Amino acid sequence: xxxxxxxxxxxxxxxxxxxxxxxxxxxxxxxxxxxxxxxxxxxxxxxxxxxxxxxxxxxxxxxxxxxxxxxxxxxxxxxxxxxxxxxxxxxxxxxxxxxxxxxxxxxxxxxxxxxxxxxxxxxxxxxxxxxxxxxxxxxxxxxxxxxxxxxxxxxxxxxxxxxxxxxxxxxxxxxxxxxxxxxxxxxxxxxxxxxxxxxxxxxxxxxxxxxxxxxxxxxxxxxxxxxxxxxxxxxxxxxxxxxxxxxxxxxxxxxxxxxxxxxxxxxxxxxxxx
Length: 274
Hints:
By secondary structure, the chain is an all-alpha fold. It has one domain (about 60-274): MetI-like (MetI-like fold, Orthogonal Bundle). Helix content is about 75%, strand content about 0%. Helix 3 (about 60-95) packs parallel to helix 6, helix 3 packs across helix 9 (about 190-205) and helix 7 (about 165-170) runs antiparallel to helix 8. The longest helix has about 35 residues, at about 1-35. It is globular. The model is unreliable at about 270-274 (pLDDT under 50).
């Protein structure tokens, strides 16, 4: 009887997981399908196959400018978030001090707070400081959003790390910074690269923060939002969305492979995707 209940429970769980994945990703599947349709309107049956919408993308100056802006913002946010994430993860995993859990909770707060509230709050703070809206303010907002993800990935790299290696380095006369640079960082390098990729992907796809904090220089999500007002631009938007979807999937897959490698090296399987 117990075996039967367990079998039924596993069956319902598998069915639920399947339906959840279908509900989540079925709309996304239509994106690449309609992006190669010859008709400008996304509807069935398809009128034909074409790559014209993809070929037109490099000929759009506004799109190229938005892509460059997203690249600048994404790389900057990824580097800053990873550097701050390294410091935070190192502190959380290595030291015990009053308020450590509260600080960790504050760092992770952007994951649970409504993003529109975070965006409006950042906008008010930036305006009160007298800063003009630009790509710099977008980077600041993206760093705030990306740090929790970076810290989660890096914590998996630092936890389970054999401290005897650092102690051996110190016994051999190496300084604390030298030990961190020569021993610790190489061991958690896969986690660092994974953090960079995750943060870049999140920044590349992030819309709401950029919508409130951008100035006259649009990022790719803002550009896509602006193009949706024109029906004739929809096929190009579908093609661009397909490319962004493929790029995000590829980067997240590489990040997960590197995270697992880091977890294996440190004998720890925790982390963002576990």
